[in-house]
Amino acid sequence: SQTIHQWPATLVQPVGSPLSLECTVEGTSNPNLYWYRQAAGRGLQLLFYSVGIGQISSEVPQNLSASRPQDRQFILSSKKLLLSDSGFYLCASAGQMTYEQYFGPGTRLTVT
Amino acid sequence: AQSVTQLDSQVPVFEEAPVELRCNYSSSVSVYLFWYVQYPNQGLQLLLKYLSGSTLVESINGFEAEFNKSQTSFHLRKPSVHISDTAEYFCAVSPSGGSYIPTFGRGTSLIVHP
Question: In this complex, is the C-beta atom of A90 within 8 Å of any C-beta atom belonging to chain B?
Fold first, then answer.
């Protein structure tokens, strides 16, 4: 099975500062990768997904960007954080021909 | 496009009582169905899935869900809950052909009281 690593686990950043969250995957090759944001009581919001290196699709207009520099590495970034960027960020992976997702432990971001 | 409705945002129940968490979906194409569980401050874990075959699927920890195509439902049940089942439960659907982007429900918080 797949193992998803995310870091950092928690992060407190001031408004206007940059952001970089990293996700790496073990146990599979050429996975589909996903970034979600979870706000309290609101379920999961898909932010980005990627089907291969350098291939990023954005689901919602926002202050964030994503990159996939290597097959099993997915990075979420921002140049200037907003208060509304606070939340619990989850990285997920799925095999190319499978539908179930494996999730990382998440990063709790607080923008102050 | 798909949509998923979890009607109950919170379900309180006493330990050893039965529980049902409801999930209804809508889709213009065939779908695969999933239940995920999320314990506090953790990521989601796959609990069970329906892809094809028997409409009743079971997990290793006593949960089961039944796919009802006519009612477009995939309710999650457990005959006797434990304190350790306290968690957030998410229902999700994925179209069965092509797109690998699931649609998640908003989640149901199961709270098991002693």
Answer: yes
Give the whole-angstrom CA distance, residue A82 versus residue B37: 30
Q: Which residue of A has its CA nearest to B32?
A: A99
Q: How far is CA B87 from CA A6, B59, B81, B82, B108, in A?
A: 21, 16, 12, 11, 8
Q: With beta carbons under 8 A apart, name residues in chain A contacting B46.
A: 100-102
Mind listing the pLDDT tens digit for each residue in B48-95? 999 988 889 999 889 999 999 999 999 999 999 999 999 999 999 998
Query: Are the CB atoms for B53 and B12 separated by under 8 Å?
Result: no
Band (A51; pLDDT cuts 50, 70, 90):
very high
Beta-carbon contacts of residue B53 (< 8 Å; ≥ 6 apart): none
Q: Inter-chain contact A100–B34, Cβ cutoff 8 Å?
A: yes
Beta bridge partners of A83: none
B43 and chain A: CB distance < 8 Å anywhere? yes
Q: Are A43 and B106 in contact (CB under 8 A)?
A: yes
- How far is CA A76 from each of CA A60, A64, A68, rounded to the nearest angstrom? 14, 7, 9
Q: Using the beta-carbon criterion (under 8 Å), do A99 and B104 form an inter-chain contact?
A: no
B108–A contact, CB cutoff 8 A: no
